[in-house]
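[INFO] parsing input record for ABC transporter ATP-binding protein
[DEBUG] input buffer:
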Amino acid sequence: MYQLTAVSRVYKTAAGPVPAVDGVDLTIEDGEWIAIRGRTGHGKSTLLNLLGGLDRPTAGQIRLDGHDLGKLPDAQLSRVRATAIGFIFQTFNLIPTLSAHENVESALVPLGGSPAGRRRTVAAALDSVGLADRAGHLPSQLSGGQQQRVAIARALVKEPKVLLADEPTGNLDEETRDEIIALMEKLWRERGLTLILVSHDGAVTRRAQRVAVMSRGRLTLKP
Ligand SMILES: Nc1ncnc2c1ncn2[C@@H]1O[C@H](COP(=O)(O)OP(=O)(O)OP(=O)(O)O)[C@@H](O)[C@H]1O
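[DEBUG] output buffer:
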């Protein structure tokens, strides 16, 4: 469970402080799917980065299962990220020189385990996103939808409890968008994931159980 209390993130810039996230209070239950929408530049990605432990708040608390992410030492925060949290992004962020299999495997390497065990786990992850027959392909040899499937497999191969998605369908056509959201919904249901999805696309956010809107760094829950 996430518990956010008065969370703020102010960026210091040459032009002065930018309060990207401003006093957010929010509880997200385990297994919930919440969507966050809002106009560009209103703090959605900043909030997602805070939830994922990629950034620390300048004020307030972000608790994930009792751990205060803002205060955890770097090594422990890295461990939480490596085990408990999966990320997917608008631009897929696959490593261009690695095959689909190797991209997915890259999430398991820091966790140890035998190469043979890893191979089986990666094969199962690619199968779960419908890409068993594309394991040897480089990202450049895959469509956008297929690349996002690889990224989903990479995010979920370590069996995290949380999946954070930042505009995951922003680079896809409508049909592919619907396929990717249907896949995410299936995986969310099957795995009991906590899914936190940022999108400006109402067709995507309305699939969630709950929708919150970010405006000028402030979060409002929709009834
Ligand atoms: N590293 C940074 N340094 C300074 N300002 C930043 C930084 N990152 C974001 N900002 C500013 O913080 C505000 C929120 O940005 P953020 O990327 O979180 O918004 P967003 O809602 O996710 O937008 P988008 O949909 O375009 O990704 C913006 O005013 C942005 O210019």
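[INFO] The longest strand covers residues 16-28.
[INFO] shutting down worker
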